[in-house]
């Protein structure tokens, strides 16, 4: 049981590290791509969002939801993989 807990904690830490790396390395590129491909005068037809609102939502997703999702998924993966490897059901 301690191995599964350690794997879950380790998976969670790996998830946090991946989300942190994505925030540092991928987010600036994503924002640059949005501005480059959509242009400064872009506006979403239904909601009326402009490029600044889209960039704000993109930052929120990268800074909040990605760490939450990556941590939970990789912690669960670590727990499940070690449980299966040890024959625990």
Structure, described:
By secondary structure, this protein is an all-alpha fold. The protein has one domain (2-86). The chain is built from 2 helices and no strands.
Structural category is mainly alpha
Main sheet attributes: strand count, strand direction, barrel closure: none
Uncertain stretches: none
Total of helices: 2
Q: In angstroms, what is the radius of gyration? A: 18 Å
- How many strand segments? 0
* End-to-end distance: 11 Å
Order of helices and strands: HH
Fraction of residues in helix: over 70%
- Domain count: the total is 1
User: Strand-residue fraction?
Assistant: under 5%
Outline, from the CA principal axes?
elongated
Summary tags:
single chain; 89 residues; mainly alpha; 2 helices; 82% helix
């Amino acid at each position: 049981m301690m191995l599964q807990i350690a794997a879950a904690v380790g998976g969670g830490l790996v998830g946090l590290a991946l989300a942190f790396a994505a925030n540092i390395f991928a987010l600036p590129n994503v924002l640059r791509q949005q501005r480059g491909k959509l242009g400064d005068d872009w506006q979403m037809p239904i909601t009326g969002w402009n490029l600044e609102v889209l960039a704000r939502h993109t930052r929120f997703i990268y800074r909040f939801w990605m760490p939450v999702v990556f941590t939970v998924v990789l912690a669960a993966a670590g727990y499940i993989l070690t449980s299966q490897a040890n024959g625990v059901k």
